[in-house]
């Protein structure tokens, strides 16, 4: 564990956790409390926005896909309400396109689920200058292709027909690719 994680959250330990997976968010809140944070939880975009406006936290962990919308709406609101807020976006749909979108609108880091409390703490307290090590096993060509398709799909607001047109591929072929799991 790095030194910055061991020092704790600092003078303002306020933490907003937004996730619609109730057992997960309760476990994470308890674990983060043990690490010195003062967590508040929300299970929807509306609830998360209300808490963010009421008392903008120093830290936030936000799920990307919530039942009532996109967690990125909360990220944008937090950036306006408290520009120095350290925000980590969590998602079960780990794709480069969504990670880039999250960071562009103000997220500090992006983690794929399942992420444990240690990973979340490192992401919240880590230094922005830290450069990750090069992977031991880089992405395969199939994975790079899949990531590109996912990025274009997100750019087209998840419209299959428009994505197929932009990629110059048959719509049915694209649907089959999107229905499969990501290659390793």
Automatic annotation (TrEMBL):
Keyword DNA-binding: yes
Stored SUPFAM superfamilies: CheY-like (SSF52172)
4-aspartylphosphate sites (modified residues): 63
Gene Ontology molecular function terms on file: DNA binding
GO biological process: phosphorelay signal transduction system
Gene3D superfamilies per record: 3.40.50.2300, Homeodomain-like
Record key words, sorted: Activator, DNA-binding, Phosphoprotein, Transcription, Transcription regulation, Two-component regulatory system
InterPro entries: ActR_PrrA_rreg (IPR047772), Bact_response_regulator (IPR050595), CheY-like_superfamily (IPR011006), Sig_transdc_resp-reg_receiver (IPR001789)
Start and end residues of each Response regulatory domain: 14-128
CDD domains: REC_RegA-like (cd17563)
Function of the protein: Member of the two-component regulatory system RegB/RegA. Involved in transactivating anaerobic expression of the photosynthetic apparatus. It is a transcriptional regulator that is responsible for activating expression of the puf, puh, and puc operons in response to a decrease in oxygen tension.
Protein name per its UniProtKB record: Photosynthetic apparatus regulatory protein RegA
Organism this protein belongs to: Falsirhodobacter algicola
């Amino acid at each position: 564990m790095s030194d910055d994680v061991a020092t704790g959250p600092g003078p303002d330990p306020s933490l907003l956790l937004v996730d619609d997976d109730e057992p997960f968010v309760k476990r994470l809140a308890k674990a983060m409390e043990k690490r010195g944070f003062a967590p508040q939880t929300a299970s929807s975009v509306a609830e998360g926005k209300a808490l963010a406006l009421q008392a903008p936290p120093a830290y936030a962990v936000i799920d990307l896909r919530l039942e009532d919308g996109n967690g990125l709406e909360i990220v944008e609101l937090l950036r306006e309400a408290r520009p120095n807020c350290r925000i980590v976006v969590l998602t079960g749909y780990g794709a480069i396109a969504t990670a880039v979108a999250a960071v562009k609108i103000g997220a500090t880091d992006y983690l794929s689920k399942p992420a444990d409390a240690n990973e979340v703490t490192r992401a919240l307290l880590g230094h922005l200058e830290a450069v990750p090590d090069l992977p031991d096993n880089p992405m395969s060509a199939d994975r790079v292709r899949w990531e590109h398709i996912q990025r274009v799909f997100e750019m087209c607001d998840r419209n299959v027909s428009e994505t197929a047109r932009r990629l110059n591929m048959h719509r049915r072929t694209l649907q089959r690719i999107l229905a499969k799991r990501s290659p390793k």
